[in-house]
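Your task
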Amino acid sequence: TSVPLGNKTPLVGLDAGNHALWDRTSPLTRKAFGALVGMGGVDSVWGRERVQRWESLVLASLNERGMPRAQRGLFLGISAVYYAAEQAGAHSKIMTREALVKALRKKSAELIEYEDEKLAIVNLSLVIILLEHVLHRKARIVCKRNWTLGEERESFVATWTLGFYLRHLEA
């Protein structure tokens, strides 16, 4: 399952008529997208109300696109999830979803006052909603990008291609 969202979605041109989020088959997503776009262009201030509308859009899209919910187990956070965790000082350690979300919310609250932190605020909000939706509150997650493997101590960088590889390995 995929969702047509990324951490740069609300920071680039938001032309409602030409965006995948303006889909007639997803009325809640469409409504939330319209509410966000109605707050102004990409240069608008990212205060609490705008962040709440962004989070509503993310949640609506996850729900309408059938993203899995309350998954249990141990998960690896890479890409945007890793960068959010790194920014919050919660990377490279195994933690519960609850603990990670708490750290992300704390960092988001600190950054909300800084206009030059739009991308960080948007990414933190996206990751918070994604984790709350997809992972069970007791699920565990480690957000790590750089790994050292084997006796030779070779370095490996986990990017989105790792997930792509693992998905096809299962098939």
Summary: Strands lie at 74-77, 94-96, 140-143, 146-149, 154-157.
